[in-house]
Predict the 3D structure of the following.
Amino acid sequence: MKLAIGNDHVAIEMKNEIKAHLESRGIEVINVGTDEPGSFDYAISGYKVAKMVAAGEVDGGVLICGTGVGISLAANKVKGIRACVCSEPFTAKLSKQHNNSNIIAFGARVVGVELAKMIVDEWVDAEFQGGRHERRVNMIMEIEATQRLAAVDER
Ligand code: RB5
């Protein structure tokens, strides 16, 4: 498995901890985030990781800013991206199983490093379950592609 990881200035230490943790599990991690102490706009890392995921260059992405919100909002503007902010492992797991999330995000100001490791572990180990969930994810992709939803607009 190969993942991309990105962060802003708030999350450098957390990024390094999570990268090392994933690597200790045998996962290749490509760091496209900042490693400089100066202020860094989270949208840059969100966009970089999202483009790599959308292009299929990596199997998924991890994004960390102060809350996980700004960086995931930026990533979600890239077509094909489903970036989910998760502050606990249960939602992280179900975001993959039910929503086929391809990026996990969290906040370095919100969760501690041990909880962050559990969040990424549950997400990495989970698999999309398909079935009824596939229909719902397809609806999300339909909205993204057309700015319409037939189930609503064509009733
Ligand atoms: C940076 O101060 C902070 O706004 C950023 O890390 C993140 O929390 C934004 O969503």
About this structure: The chain has a mean pLDDT of 98.
